[in-house]
Write a structure and sequence with these properties.
There is one protein chain. The chain is an alpha+beta fold. The protein folds into two domains: 113 residues, no CATH class; 250 residues, 3-Layer(aba) Sandwich (Extracellular Endonuclease, Chain A). It has six helices and 17 strands. It has a seven-stranded antiparallel β-sheet, with helices on both faces. The protein has a five-stranded antiparallel β-sheet with strand order 1-8-7-6-4.
Length: 435
């Protein structure tokens, strides 16, 4: 073949390549993963992909207060949801698909792009994000803020508690979703000429035990104005069905507070109400005075740290999972060996939970964060009274609210707008709490 003909063939080949590239669309444009794919984007390198022990850090996008981080090979963050894009570059992401599903985490795959939605009580913030590269324990992230959208926090709350005549606080953020088979009780006090919800509970008559107690800390209720009253008494709102002192005698268990005495020391009346027997749970002595008490102190410290505007709390013991056929290895404070029967009841007929839980929600401006704690009822943890649990150990008992709900069957923080609830309950982040 003549040289002139070879040159023509070569030029024709180049023309075909160029034409095919133009027809294929912008998504086939080659991407250099280390280079920006949109003007004004930010690059950040997250560590912790292979192992947090080899290094771990977080990414907090500008104008937001919640961090993103790597966990179990995925990108995750409290109050964030992710929508996968089929684009390869951020400048190609012009609109979100209407058919995709927002997920609580984003799989790490080099070159993958996502829409990211951050939810606060009044605002959605949308980001475009690309997994730029993976390098051992590091993942390169390219992102840019796309838009914001105001939201109505009163809309779309399908699982909120319905108002109840005469019950002022049933829609408080601390409340789990009510079970109509149980008895809902609110205890309030008048303090500085204002009625304050002291705490609420849901009473399960067949178990002679509360399903949960709920309350909140704010600028008033965090105050420490009085000392422990030890005002043991019947719950006046549960006439004839509330346990009494004799039901807790000589059984080897402590009368364990659910809403702790130290949770309510802003007024004498408020503290006295924490000594109602409806607020007690039969707990092994070392668990009550050491292990459980450590988590109580931690939450009280959070509430009194000035790091949050309000802290909402729900806690209790599992009444669908009781400590059955149990015989302790050490006497209780009353000198009696604790025991339960085949149904999980104490000698005096009180349900004895096998597990205890705490659900905690913090509020700071329009930002919310949540964390749960799940712990087995045992007397061999090795912590009691002045030997409290170190924070590093307590962190190992932390779970997301979603996981806590699976364990307990309860629906916590149901009065939050559903999208806020979904966002804060999907995961917990150590950095959001003052350990």
């Amino acid at each position: 073949m003549k040289k002139e003909n070879l040159l023509c063939v070569f030029l024709l080949f180049l023309f075909c390549l160029t034409s095919c590239g133009d027809d294929a669309g912008s998504e086939t444009l080659p991407v250099d993963n280390t280079q920006p794919t949109i003007t004004g984007s930010t690059f950040y390198e997250l560590k912790g992909y292979e192992s947090a022990a080899q290094g771990f850090n977080t990414l907090t996008p500008e104008n937001l207060s919640d961090p993103l981080y790597l966990q179990d090979g995925a990108l995750i963050g409290e109050s964030y949801h992710f929508l996968e894009s089929d684009k390869l570059r951020l400048d190609e992401m012009t609109e979100m698909t209407a058919t995709g599903e927002w997920m609580p985490s984003a799989a790490i795959a080099e070159g993958k792009c996502y829409w990211v939605r951050h939810t606060s009580i009044l605002l959605y913030t949308y980001l475009k994000l690309r997994i730029a590269y993976i390098d051992g324990n590091s993942v390169g992230i390219e992102y840019i803020e796309d838009s914001t959208e105001e939201r109505d926090p009163t809309e779309g709350n399908v699982n909120a508690n319905a108002p109840i005549e005469g019950k002022k606080f049933v829609t408080d953020y601390s409340m789990p979703h009510l079970n109509p088979e149980n008895i809902y009780v609110e205890h309030s006090v008048t303090h500085n000429d204002a009625e304050i919800m002291n705490y609420a509970l849901e009473w399960v008559e067949s178990k002679r035990h509360s399903a949960w107690v709920a309350f909140s800390f704010d600028a008033v209720t965090v105050q420490k104005n009085v000392s422990r009253t030890d005002a043991w008494n019947l719950d006046p709102q549960l006439p004839g069905i509330c346990p009494e002192e004799n039901d807790h005698k000589s059984d080897g268990f402590d009368k364990g507070h659910l809403c702790a005495s130290e949770d309510r020391v802003y007024s004498k009346e408020a503290n006295e109400q924490t000594f109602y027997y409806s607020n007690m749970s039969p707990q092994m002595s070392s668990f009550n005075g050491g292990f459980w008490a450590s988590f109580e102190i931690l939450v009280q410290d959070w509430a009194r740290s000035n790091a949050y505007d309000k802290v909402y709390v729900a806690k209790g013991g599992t009444l669908d999972q009781l400590l059955v056929n149990f015989t302790g290895t050490r006497n209780g404070n009353d000198g009696v060996l604790p025991q339960t029967d085949a149904n999980g009841f104490t000698k005096k007929g009180l349900a004895c939970p096998k597990y205890y839980f705490m659900a905690v929600l913090s509020e700071k401006g329009s930002e919310y964060h949540a964390i749960g704690f799940w712990m087995e009822h045992r007397d061999d943890y090795g912590y009691e009274y002045d030997n409290f649990v170190p924070s590093d150990v307590m962190k190992t008992y932390a779970v997301s609210i979603d996981e806590l709900e699976k364990n307990t069957g309860l629906d916590f923080f149901c009065n939050l707008p559903d999208d806020v609830e979904d966002a804060v309950e999907a995961s917990w982040n150590e950095a959001n709490w003052t350990w």
